Amino acid sequence: MTTETAETTETTELPQLPFSRPTVLDPAPAFAELRERAPLAQVRTPAGDRAWLVTGYEAARALFGDPRLGRSHPDEATAPAVSDAAIMGGPTGNHDTEHADHARLRALLRPAFSAKRMRALDDHVADLVARCLDEMAAARSRAPHRPVDLHAHLSFPLPALVISELLGVPATDREHFRDLSLRASRMGSGGDAAMALSEFHAYLGRVAAAKRARPGQDVLSDLVRAQADDPSFSDDKLVRLATGLLFAGHETTVNRIDLGVLLLVTNPARRDAFLADPASRIAGVVEEILRMAAPADLGVLRYAHADIEIGGTLVRQGDAVLLAPSAANRDPAMFADPDVFDPSRAANHHLAFGHGAHFCIGAGLARTELRAVFTALFTRFPTLRLAADVHDLPVRGDQLTGGISALPVTWTL
């Protein structure tokens, strides 16, 4: 077998990310084309650098759990970049201590995101969902002939309210940190992304300082307390961790709510099948939404900390690797009829939350929110439908996390 490396494709014109896609609900056809050739392939990032794009399920799952990959780079000055976005655009962390740092911080956060804690949140999240749906109904009553923006009334505010409360960030600041999140993750910003990230760190630094003066029962207070036992856990590390939690804790769930709603309302038979028995079908519906909703095309960035051979391909130390769950979750080698929305899948081992040591610590929180949203939304508004053509929805093409910025819906009064 011939081992492929970056050098063997030096003279080949590489596919350029991001790939075009028919609609926000459909994966880019280029993913399937690349996956049919090999589980990983060389591509160009939006920044123009080389990266390995992993589209096959088995390869993605193995590499998600491979300790030879990390978020840091042995030489940041030469690290390939995804883009100029300040979040997830390039390497982060200390290359020498990354794995130990990650294990220590994950152990610190685990109690706040435990299954027991998530179960205790069920009723409270349901109450927050009900409040958001009341706002939707009120908006429709004020202007019964106009669509209601579900993104503005539900998809954005709910995750922001939940993660704010969990972290101990004032919920009244949600518009502020949403603006900072969007700016920091914007590609081609001309330097504004880096400025926004600096502002984000300063903002959370002020919140953390307030917690030192008056700690509460929240994650930021826990992190402040942990500093007393670990002098190496600096203020800079604390605010960087808090920024990542606040960004990931609301941005990705916003997208999953938007696209999950689209998956159901664009197929009335699918919506009605769920409505026939929401209680018993909600778990399967949520897992299919997680598998099929793919707001972003760029993948999860990692760097090789050592040479890795997979599927006859040699990934060199220092190479950028983009793990693409949106492609892996449509791999027919793993999922029968992968483009069919099937809540009854017996074994839906998707990679929406990654795999291995870096499995998303907020997975339980996201599932709690999604179960509450979809059960209540379609029970409250069983005739909910899209009030626009899916091709006309405003796609956030300049955002690393993708998604849409508005979701007009209506229903029978």
TrEMBL record:
Pfam families: p450. Keywords: Heme, Iron, Metal-binding, Monooxygenase, Oxidoreductase. Residues 1-24 are annotated as: Disordered. Transmembrane segments: none annotated. Pathway: Antibiotic biosynthesis; vancomycin biosynthesis. Its cofactor is heme. PROSITE patterns: CYTOCHROME_P450 (PS00086). Residues 1-13 have a biased composition (Low complexity). One of its GO terms (molecular function) is monooxygenase activity. Belongs to the cytochrome P450 family. Involved in the coupling of aromatic side chains of the heptapeptide of vancomycin. This is Cytochrome P450.
